[in-house]
Design a protein that fits this description.
alpha/beta, Transcription Regulator spoIIAA, 7-stranded mixed beta sheet, two-stranded antiparallel ribbon, 9 strands, globular
Length: 328
């Protein structure tokens, strides 16, 4: 871990800042596998390196999986990968934790006095019923957290990653739910008393700043194995294997790396950039005007979010149809 974090900090130091007059970083997110296994002193070294290189806002949202020692370093956002509140479903997910560990983790969060914390839930799991899903949603709300991320199971991705319990099940067939049942799960989550944050839910004032950076198409740095940055309109990725990544960092230090791939296409931007239109309803006539008025669209692009929950489900179909046209 020490060698990897040292290499990570070398990459940060070797990265050319986008602009010396840029404001300090607003968010820092430690993700990938289980970052909380890294000792706090090593996390501190990463935060210090980021602060010295780019600056760190006094109101920055620093998020990571739970570890009590991390709170003293300025980590102010905690995420718990709960997934479900039923032992049988956790086993079906191939998770190492059980329901008892879920409650233990929430108690630790409370003891640490963390104000901003979230849970991840997965719907459309094998053998999951509306009653079971409703129980998970209810217990999540009772935990009095500030943010919930709800993910719909993607069996195809699970199969590609390998080693997942549900990879053996035929897509759309029992024990996996049908598309209609999956849509019902989403509607149930949308009725949860919370403010919607695209695909997530949170209390007012507790939006995930890091996710909003992606959704609003803002630039972001990324560091470490397999990470991908988006800076100055260009996306670029790091090697996924340690040997190649070490060589990559060494080349960066010698100014031998072209940190860039091809600029993002319209399709790339459309994939990432789905933003709420200030929460107001748009009449059909206004919508048609936006579509035909090219000058207005170029000057001030309009982004529309269909109303939850049925509108969101419809939007998935519309997006799929659109991409079939622009990128067959």
């Amino acid at each position: 871990m020490t060698k990897y974090v040292q290499l990570l900090c070398r990459e940060i130091n070797a990265t050319k800042a986008e602009n010396k007059t840029d404001p300090p970083l607003e968010t820092v997110f430690f993700g990938g596998s289980t970052p909380s296994l890294v000792p706090p002193k090593l996390v501190d070294s990463v935060l210090e390196t980021l602060s010295l290189k780019f600056g760190l806002s006094s109101e920055a949202q620093v998020s990571m999986e739970m570890d009590q020692g991390l709170m003293e370093l300025g980590v102010n956002g905690v995420s718990l990968g709960v997934q479900a509140f039923q032992e049988e479903l956790l086993k079906a997910c191939g998770r190492a934790h059980g329901v008892r560990e879920v409650y233990e983790a929430t108690e630790i969060v409370g003891e640490c006095g963390v104000e901003n914390w979230s849970m991840d839930l997965i719907s459309s799991l094998p053998h999951q019923t509306p009653e079971i899903w409703e129980e998970s949603l209810r217990l999540t709300v009772e935990a009095r957290l500030t943010h919930v991320s709800v993910y719909d199971l993607q069996p195809n991705k699970a199969r590609n990653s390998g080693g997942c319990k549900w990879s053996e099940y035929p897509l759309g067939e029992f024990p996996l739910p049908s598309e209609m049942r999956s849509a019902e799960f989403y509607k149930m989550a949308s009725r949860t008393p919370s403010d919607a944050e695209i695909s997530s839910y949170c209390k007012s004032g507790y939006h995930c700043k890091h996710n909003l950076t992606y959704w609003k198409n803002k630039p972001f740095y990324a560091f470490g194995l397999g990470s991908t940055s988006y800076v100055d309109g260009v996306r670029f990725s790091r090697p996924k294997r340690m040997k190649e990544y070490t060589g990559y960092v060494e080349k960066m230090e010698n100014d031998l790396v072209e940190c860039g791939e091809s600029p993002r296409t319209v399709q790339d931007m459309a994939t990432d950039h789905l933003v709420v239109n200030e929460g107001r309803a748009i009449a059909a006539d206004e919508f048609n005007t936006l579509l035909v008025n090219e000058d207005e669209t170029e000057r001030s692009p309009a982004y529309i979010r269909l109303s939850d929950p049925d509108g969101f489900l419809l939007s998935n179909e519309l997006i799929s149809l659109a991409f079939a046209v622009v990128a067959p």
